[in-house]
Fold this sequence. Notes:
Layout: H1 3-8, E1 63-69, E2 77-78, E3 84-85, H2 87-99, E4 102-108, H3 113-118, E5 124-130, H4 133-136, E6 139-141, E7 150-155, E8 172-176, H5 180-188, E9 193-197, H6 200-208, E10 214-218, H7 219-227, E11 235-242, H8 245-248, E12 252-257, H9 261-276, H10 279-287
Parallel strand pairs: 1-4, 1-5, 8-9, 8-10
Antiparallel strand pairs: 2-3, 5-12, 6-12, 7-10, 7-11
Helix pairs in contact: 2-9, 2-10
Amino acid sequence: MGLAAAACLLTALPAEAQTPAKRPPAAPQATPQTTPQAAPQAVPGFWDPRRRPERPDLSRLTVIRFLTETDYPPFNYTGADGNPAGFNVDFARALCEEIKVTCTVQMRRFETLVDALTSNRGDAIIASMAVSPQLRARVDFTDPYYRVPARFVSRKDAVMPEIRPEYLEGKKVGVIAGSAHEAYLKAMFTDAELHAYPSDDAMRAALRRGEVDFIFGDAISLAFWINGTDSGDCCAFSGGPFVESRFFGEGIGIAVRKGNDVLRQALNWAMFRVWEKGRYTDLWLRYFSVSPF
Length: 293
């Protein structure tokens, strides 16, 4: 995707849009919104209606044992009742309802998930796992069910509706040192003045203090920061999302054991159906009061 097109992408994303290669940092707010925000927001669409998957043979599926992360809010966390909760968990349950199969969700440490799957202690991993060539060697993935774009944030009195490289000539832009976001800025925004920070907290504090004009990073964690108390209501997104695959990866998918095409195809079909019926949009609005897109 070209730079101009990526910069102007404001609503639904096509199926070819991409996500960062590494799992984004956990958002600071674990509890989902009980009702969608009143103001309209962009809800991403990762499924192309022209590529409707055929209904697979579901007769061989009797149960799906999902594996997920233990502490990665708002995607996975332990609810007030002690049971698994979060966007990934609710999405998994919606898929099981669509397939009409019993569903279980087991929480494990993120680094143990692939071994648990390959040793048949579960059937599918739904844990914000970024698709990568290294993981593809061990597991198979469904189509992406979300992606994490990169975005610029500025102070509210300096919001720009669109950002192009020439607009940031001489501007100070904060970014995490050594990140894909820094590499992207160095390649595409060559006339901006980059300021590298060791952590998200340091980068965001620099924007609040006015030491930089913009910061650039993972839009999901930035969306929660913008809407949370830590930001002090200082800041807002500027411009649209950037989804360049060379820097920001392939997407977030559900992992299944190698060769388990029955389950993989069933999940792909169910994901499309959940999106087509509007249930994905409802779920997104419940958990993301400020859209990363």
